[in-house]
Specification:
single chain; OB fold (Dihydrolipoamide Acetyltransferase, E2P); Rossmann fold; 5-stranded mixed barrel; 5-stranded parallel beta sheet; 12 helices; 13 strands
Amino acid sequence: MQILDVQQVTAYIKELLDTDPILSDVWLRGEVSSFFESAAGHCYFTLTGDGCQIKSVLFKGNRWSIPELPRQGDEIVAHGNISIYPDQGQYQLYVDYLAAEGTGLAQIEFERLYRQLDAEGLFDESRKRPLPVFPRTIGLVTSKQGAVLHDICHVVGRRYPVAQIILAPSAVQGAAAPAELQAALRKLVASNACDFIIVARGGGAPEELVVFNDEQLARAIFRSPVPVISAIGHETDTTIADLVADVRAPTPSAAAELSVPDGRELLSAIHSRLAEARDHAGDSLADADDHLARAVSRLRLRSPERRLNHARQATDLLTLRAVSAARRSIERRRALLETRSAGLNSLNPAAVLQRGYAAIESADDGRRLATVGAIKQSSGQIVIRMSDGQLRAQTES
């Protein structure tokens, strides 16, 4: 026999309650009584119904998800987990969300999950990624049956036929749909081939779209490494998957429209750009021709040949001037020479002789005898030079 103390029993009961699949995720309906809000912001109340009651607590940290606190006597639906409060040894409901009685369970769960994921940042616009402009491969998660697959393939084929669509089929309603949708997403992500993924389903009743409010599906979309487009139901339908997705399309066909460019518009833009490029190229070539012509003109003005021609012309001019100056100098010198020659000729004894005069020299030594006294001193033998010859003579007196 084993004897347990109070703490051991309490801990054992707490573990049983905390691990029970029903009590750890439970919805309760009842009337609020004994409502009390502490100074710390925690709310304590009792849920009663059919003569039974359960203590409940709503901690301050979970109050952000409650649009309006209940009052004494309100009929509510509360969500949370049942565990034991060891200090008092009593079990109680730890509330994380509540709503007024009469609200549908699906709507209550939607609101609770919306506030939870919103607080975690799964809906932040800042984290949502733009779609690639020119996708090559599109992942598609939808049913193999129905018009959605046909509509998306038709629109993509008409607008942008170069894009390839990879289908990961999945149920889009029913109990098995959330798990199949997650598996299809994982398969496309693992292929590492998709530029983005479309999660699509046609219109349906609200209860048929509830599978797209699944928390794990929302987290799978959030974790996707490539952008996700949601196209679920009609434009008026909003699911958690729509809010988490990077892009929300009102319909599957609209998702196909906004996910790929229009090929005809692209061709028109290409032709327009080509025309602009041709015009620009023509203008550029014309400007280049003008620039080249101006450059050639400047080069010609600065050409060495041009300067050489100028130098040649200057050289020719200087040569002409030098030749002319030389000629003038020669003429002046010739005239001077002639003048001086004439002067010299006038002093030439031979020239004097030609005018009828004679020159007397000593026959002995050829000494010029210019006076009678000089002749007397000589031997008397003299030579008389005349213009046409000479005479030898003997002086007598």
